[in-house]
Amino acid sequence: MSDVTIVDARGLSCPEPVIRTKKALASLGGGRVDILVDTVTARENVSRYARSQGWTAEAVEEDNHFRVALKK
Predict the structure, then answer these.
(1) Using alpha carbons only, what angle is made at residue 9 by residues 55 and 16, rounded to the nearest 5 degrees?
(2) Contacts of 66 (CB under 8 A, 6+ apart)
(3) Is the pTM for the entire model greater than 0.85?
(4) Cβ distance 34 to 66 under 8 Å?
(5) CATH code of residue 24
(6) Distance between CA atoms of 16 and 2, rounded to whole angstroms?
(7) What is the count of structural domains for the chain?
(8) pLDDT for the residue 29
(9) Which of 9, 39, 55, 61 could bridge to 50 as Cys pair (CB 3.0-4.6 Å)?
């Protein structure tokens, strides 16, 4: 399995999760990045941003947070 970059944005208010997602995606040309967020708004904003940049986004609910798996 390839390496997965994990960005923990739990507890951060928008737009910080999107800003951290943007930085992580900019540093990678592709692969997989998991963004951890703890609000529905952050989940939706991160997913929307990633898709606008050509990444796929799949969110799953885990214990008290969401894992948004981004792939390109």
Answers:
(1) 80
(2) 36, 37, 38, 40, 42, 43, 59, 60
(3) yes
(4) no
(5) 3.30.110.40
(6) 27
(7) 1
(8) 81
(9) 55
pLDDT tens, residue by residue, 16-63: 999 999 999 999 989 999 999 999 999 999 999 999 999 999 999 999
Q: Which amino acid is at 67?
A: R
Tokens 């898709």 identify what position?
Answer: 51
Rounded Cα–Cα distance for residues 68 and 70 (Å): 6
The more confident residue out of 14 and 22 is 22
Query: What's the pLDDT at 2?
Result: 60
Handedness of CA 14, 36, 44, 68 (dihedral sign): positive
Contact, 4 vs 32, CB < 8 A?
Answer: yes
